[in-house]
Amino acid sequence: MKDQQFDKRRNTAADAKKALLEKFRAKNAELESTFEERTAAAIKLREEREARIAERQAAKEAAERAEREESERAAREAAEARSRKENEDRAKITELLAAQKAARDARYAARKARHKR
Questions:
Q1: Residue 41: in which H helix or E strand, if any?
Q2: Cα–Cα distance between 38 and 31 in angstroms, integer?
Q3: Burial class (CB within 10 angstroms; exposed 0-12, middle 13-18, buried 19+) of 23
């Protein structure tokens, strides 16, 4: 009698293990079929994310390049304006010095003319 009860419990436990194993195999087969779909979807999402990141990076680099070019252009224009201003100032000074020299020469010539008489 004890052996029969033990065999019954052992068989019941073995049947329960088999049922769990079948349940696991069925679920595993279902998961394997969706695994490839999920993996493909994850790869697609990763590629899209990387493309967006690359696009943002390219836009950022383009903006930085444009800003740098604008800054260089502004600096170049400022240097040219400064150079023009310096040249104008030099020309004014040269004209002023020439006018002063002409006035001085005229005074000198007038003084010479007064003394010759």
A1: helix 2-116
A2: 10
A3: exposed
Q: How high is the pLDDT of residue 117?
A: 64
Q: How many C-beta atoms surround the C-beta of residue 43 within 10 A? A: 10
Structure tokens of 100?
Answer: 């002063």
CA distance 36 to 4: 48
CA distance 16 to 22: 10
Q: What's the pLDDT score for residue 48? A: 97
Does 84 score more than 90 pLDDT?
yes
Structure tokens at 61: 């680099």
What was the pLDDT predicted at 2? 67
Q: Rounded to the nearest 5°, which phi and psi values hold at 106?
A: -65, -40
pLDDT in the model for residue 79: 96
Q: Which amino acid type is present at position 35?
A: F
Given this model, what pLDDT does residue 88 score? 96
